[in-house]
Amino acid sequence: MSAIAEPVPLTLRTPRRARPASALATLARRRAALTASNPRQILVPLIGPALLALVVAPALKVATGGLHSGIDYESFVGVGAVGLVVPLTCIFAGLSVIVDRHSGAQRELLAAPVPRAYLVIGNLAVALVLSALQVAVLIGLSGLRGGVFHITADGVAWFAGATLLFTVFMYGVAETLASRISKQEEYVGAVPAVAILPFFLAGALFPIGAMPGALTTIAKFLPLTHALALMRYAFVDPSGKGLHDIWGMSNVATEAWLSLAVIALFAAAMTAISIRTFSRSAVH
């Protein structure tokens, strides 16, 4: 006598997506571990800006008589150097994305049950922390060297907002380039145009009004110009001369909010573009 077993239904389990906060934290910790094992990403971006703040700015202060548009020149350049350290930090972060794609675990991560946007946002979180650390060190060095900063609670808020949004924008640029460029050599070749040229046009070393009219007009459309004007308004330029050079208005608070909105718009646009570019490049 034979028994006929009843068929047992099979239950196919689909992999569950990780919770957003947990997934982002895991991806950010992974990127931070990779970055911490590579000290050049922390130290190298600080070398040039630190030389500007500690050597070049004091020398130019003596050569120019100490004041520039009514602002202590050493402080003027100390803040301006932020416009170099943040782009370099973000560019190095983007370079590590290319390395991760070729010899790291990016392929395995793409197969994980998390949205691809999380990989970009996790990397961005680490770039924000690194940039914040380096900017704090840079301003501290400038202050120790003789820079004069008028730091208030409102000023810290304006400075932090401008730095945060500009870092988001720059990392969006770096991630987009990393997704579109396959070779490290080609990526490094884009650094002067992306990270260094805007530094000289955006009023980092002198007001944008000192340049020819065409270049001044171009500078007004650069996110870095708005970011530096806001940073100086926060710490060294309470009258908002840099903001007046951009907007030509009489209300400095309105100019500050307008510049913050410009940086926020660029940051949101570049983040969306970087996520889209990364997602499209991941399927090729």
3D architecture notes:
This protein is mainly alpha-helical and 284 residues long. It contains 13 helices and 2 strands. A two-stranded antiparallel ribbon has the order 1-2. The longest helix is centred in the last third of the chain and has 31 residues. The protein is globular, with a radius of gyration of 23 Å. It starts with 19 loop residues before the first helix and ends with a helix.
Largest pleated sheet: 2 strands, antiparallel
Quickly give the structural class.
mainly alpha
Helical proportion, percent range: over 70%
SSE ordering: HHEEHHHHHHHHHHH
- What is the beta-strand fraction? under 5%
| N-to-C span | 59 Å
Rg over CA atoms, rounded to whole Å, is: 23 Å
**Strands, total number:** 2
- Principal-axis shape: globular
User: Mean of the pLDDT scores?
Assistant: 80
Q: How many H/I helical runs?
A: 13
Question: Numbering strands along the chain, what is their spatial order in the largest sheet?
Answer: 1-2
